């Protein structure tokens, strides 16, 4: 596999990061202590390089109608300036990716797929634009992932840090920005797209910046954020943060073999929208069959009653019988006990149900709990 490097790779090397492959990208795993980075995000702020994520512009007169057809959600109902979490599915309802779409104009959307799926999603959108209706949709699909960096500031001090780099006359644009909304503001002297989104369970922002300007913005954020407890944070703590927040990771909780209903993402699917969309027939059948509610398996949270943590693919047991499988699991730095997400037979998914995880031959006690494990106080 070809190794990709973000525009901030040299910044990470200077900061002493250790690296890991993620979706074909060399990404910082941690800089010093992943626990310190985790706690910094929960109590102050962390700075993340998310430039491995994809960015695909969908523009043109049919942009809203096209995304209604291409994605499982009703993107035409999204107001300009707002964003929506959605899924792109196969005909059989399998999940190609979960993504966020920002409506930047009546005929203009920014679709953000996950790192390893960016190329696939961009190609799939282009194909669906051509073949989705007779003559194709009147849209342009432009993959700008290769020239775009994405930097996130996450944590309770994120807003205060951003305000130090935004002109005073634009402070209200930042402080009044709602969750899952975006605005263009001047940051560090440049007009950039700022979104109030994140993958940590904390307040925070994601900033889209051209590659050539990414290092300057990264350095400015570190410098101005130092007084607010900001430190650079890697993928290791991003994973523990998103797990505590009950957020799915593609390749763990979501896959081509899975479906939205088993994953607890039924509300993301808009079967009621007037237009047809790819996967609608299959998803309608899955819902009617009670998938994830009365049949099959359902994604649940598991709280460890002991000290040992379950890991991905470990079997979940009920009275010694396999009834599920862990998708993600580790000790929770914030809560002080092990947590896991797992697909479990629906009859054992009620909160309070006692289950075990098979930890290499030893049954470790866990209890089904409602997700998320952690929710910030606002």
3D structure, described in words:
It is a single chain. This protein has helices at 9-14, 34-43, 63-70, 118-131, 158-163, 171-175, 211-225, 235-244, 280-288; strands spanning 4-5, 18-22, 25-30, 45-49, 56-59, 83-89, 95-105, 108-112, 140-143, 148-154, 182-187, 190-195, 204-210, 230-232, 297-304, 315-318, 321-331, 338-345, 354-359, 362-369. It contains nine helices and 20 strands. Helix 2 (34-43) packs across helix 8. Among the domains are: 9-53 and 147-244, Gyrase A, domain 2 (2-Layer Sandwich), CATH 3.30.1360; 56-143 and 259-289, Alpha-Beta Plaits.
Can I get a quick summary?
This protein is of the alpha+beta class and 378 residues long. It has nine helices and 20 strands. Among the domains are: 9-53 and 147-244, Gyrase A, domain 2, CATH 3.30.1360.120; 56-143 and 259-289, Aminomethyltransferase beta-barrel domains (Alpha-Beta Plaits), CATH 3.30.70.1400.
- The portion of residues forming beta strands comes to 25-35%
CATH superfamily of the domain at 9-53 and 147-244: Probable tRNA modification gtpase trme, domain 1
CATH fold type of the domain at 9-53 and 147-244: Gyrase A, domain 2
Which class do the helix and strand fractions yield?
alpha+beta
Radius of gyration: 21 Å
What sort of overall outline do the alpha carbons produce when their principal axes are compared? globular
Named at the architecture level, the CATH assignment of the domain at 9-53 and 147-244 is: 2-Layer Sandwich
The poorly predicted ranges are: none
Q: How helical, in percent, are the residues?
A: 10-25%
Strand order of the largest sheet: 11-12-13-10-4-14
- State the name of the first-level CATH class of the domain at 9-53 and 147-244: Alpha Beta
Average the pLDDT over all residues and give the rounded result: 97
Please outline the major beta sheet.
Answer: 6 strands, mixed
Rounded to the nearest angstrom, the distance between the terminal CA atoms is 43 Å
Q: Would you count the extended β strands for me?
A: 20
Q: H/E order of the elements? A: EHEEHEEHEEEHEEHHEEEHEHHEEEEEE
- Number of helical runs? 9
